[in-house]
Amino acid sequence: MAELQPHEEFPAIRKGGSLILAWQIRNKKVLIVGGGNVAAGRIVNVLEADAKVTVISPRSGLIPEVAYRVEKGEVEYVDRTFIEDDLEGVDMCLTAIDDPEASREIYKLCKARRIPVNVADVPPECDFYFGSQHRDGALQIMVSTNGNGPKLANLIRRRIAEALPASSAAAIDKVGQLRRKLRRRAPDIEEGPKRMRWMIKVCDEWSFDELAELDEETMEKILDGYANEMVPAPPSRTFFRCGALGGDVVWYTAVTASFVAGALSSFMWMRRR
Question: Which is catalytic among the residues 79, 91, 99, 121?
């Protein structure tokens, strides 16, 4: 069979990457073996995803942050080294100990039980990587170098975070509220494509700052345009409103305002002449 040439309309496949997912582990049982700095970071990661976390480590190996999580009852704690029975009922295992042989054994046990496992700093013994993460409200961004350069991932993540609009988190929160309101107005499955198209229009038309300032009244006015797939201009670009035409609101944009002001100025100048 003749080899097919790359098609210019279809993306070329680039091997060697990872499948980046927003993995839902709410109420899943996550086992963390270790109590040091890496374990502390892993604990934060999985607690923020609402997992049920068990930490296994001798108390002498707990750094202050991990000990604090234990004392607050944020995690279950077992004061000893790992044993095979600890994997019973576990949905995910994370090892963060300075013992390569013990880590390798845990990895093998997890693979035998089909438990997703991450062995800190040993990419070949990881079913997934954590990457460098930025979190602001509902916004989560992860940068991964696929185990090649964790420090570079951290530097890239910082640059991305610095470039984000300050209102990103608030805008995302308000868009989430708007989507939920829209789904209540148009709940049918058949409306899915239309809902998606319309929400895309809203996000294209309104800036981050404008979305972040949405209130209940404005959301309802925006939603009134959904039936005809119309998106009203943001109030921040409004010159004035006219209640004519049966009470309908007519929005005059800043462009119109500028045109009117310019025309009036020219008219007054001509009269003085």
Answer: 121
